Fold:
Amino acid sequence: MTFYDNLNSALDYLEDHLEGELDYQALAHRAGVSLGTLQRIFPLFAGITLTDYIRRRRLTLAGKDLAQTDARVIDIAAKYGYDSAVAFSRAFHKFHGINPSAVKNTTVELKYYPKLVFSPPQLEPELDYEIVNLPALRLYGCNIQTDNRHIKHDAPQFYLDIEQQYPDLPHPDYGMINYLETRDSLESYEYWVLWQERHPDMQVYRVPASRWLKICIPSQEARAIQEMSDRFYEKFLPTCCYRLKPDPELEYYHDGVTDFLIPIY
Structure:
């Protein structure tokens, strides 16, 4: 199966499990990637986050159920994973522009968000890379929590904050994204800045020895790194033969360049 086949298989699984509690790990398994990777790449292909897609599909089906059945609002809310009728009504109104209790008494047209189907691009861009094996690293640094929607702003700002807070420290040796793969932290992860030399105010972080796919970026500017990251996940990953490990990905800054390091099996 291709990467796109796996993504579509994951969406088929999602459609079959929109009711009640969703097993996100099983969803990621169908996609053939870790949950953190799925959360990272989904907006690149769909234009919205995984959470927003699930919410829109559930609210689409909830509107259909309310319009075509005699089910109570509280039962529909529970069916589509909402803890209370109040939370469901708020989300329903935001999506459809009408309260769920008013659906049967109005002729307003409800919104419909369709199931997505992914298709591979016609052209596969070339990307220069190499495979390297690196020993375990013992690094020292600090982190912030961010997500897919804010990382492009949060990461550069974090570097500026670090420069002001620790003016005597050199530029960090590494940047790192550490995914938090728990049910309560969907689309949330830590962004770290790290040094090889110990600093008394910094936390220790151990990066395990691994095999890495390394892409050399001839810049240390945030925009260049972000553009390469997007290109890798959107264009290269779907067509390559490598499987990503659920370990942190690294940016190694040296000699005016950045090594973009993605852990692979």
In short: The chain has a mean pLDDT of 88. The beta strands are 130-134, 137-147, 174-179, 188-195, 203-207, 210-217, 249-254, 257-264.
